[in-house]
Write a structure and sequence with these properties.
This is SnoaL-like domain-containing protein. With about 160 residues, this protein is α+β, with helices and mostly antiparallel strands. It is built from 4 helices and 8 strands. It is about 30% helix and about 30% strand. Helix 2 packs antiparallel against helix 3 and helix 3 crosses helix 4.
Length: about 160
């Protein structure tokens, strides 16, 4: 898909409610925020979705070696991770968070599930997620914002967990 000019229809503030309603498998990117900007939407969405899905697969993997391999594919060495417990730098910080918080949840074996498509207007992307029990019960949901480097690896993750009230 070629480059396209954005219109004002998808400006920030008016599109937030529609994002979660778009299925993960949706093929056409919605209008993006930033009237007048140019981007290659389909390519960004696919590149970013690959990195995000690899990161989520790593979060769901119990095998430490497999998790490290997946994180090596999804994240830069010096990734900055802004999580619910504070800021961490490097793949090891992300791996430790996954091991200590995600994999050792009191509810037992849980899964991280992407609930929206990856919306990537440029090098930044956002996506919705849900953390659920093995029975599929939602335990927590939120939205992550990630920055993807030119090589396609995530170099910054900002986690927003829980609803805004």
């Amino acid at each position: 898909m070629g480059r396209r000019r954005l219109t004002g229809a998808g400006r920030a503030g008016g599109s937030a409610g529609r994002v979660a309603a778009v299925p993960v498998t949706g093929s056409a990117p919605a209008a993006r925020a930033g009237a007048g900007a140019w981007y290659d939407g389909a390519m960004n969405d696919e590149l970013h979705a690959k990195a995000v899905d690899t990161f989520i697969e790593a979060a769901n993997t119990a095998d430490p070696e497999r998790r490290a391999t997946l994180l090596g594919r999804a994240l830069t060495d010096d990734v900055v991770f802004w999580g619910p417990l504070g800021r961490g730098v490097g793949r090891k910080a992300v791996e430790d968070f996954i091991t200590e918080v995600v994999q050792r949840h009191p509810s037992g074996s849980c899964l991280m599930v992407r609930t929206t498509r990856v919306d990537a207007p440029d090098e930044w992307a956002r996506y919705g997620w849900r953390y659920e029990s093995a029975a599929g019960e939602p335990l927590l949901s939120g939205m992550d914002i990630v920055h993807v480097a030119a090589a396609g690896d995530i170099d910054e993750i900002v986690v927003f967990a829980g609803p805004l009230t």
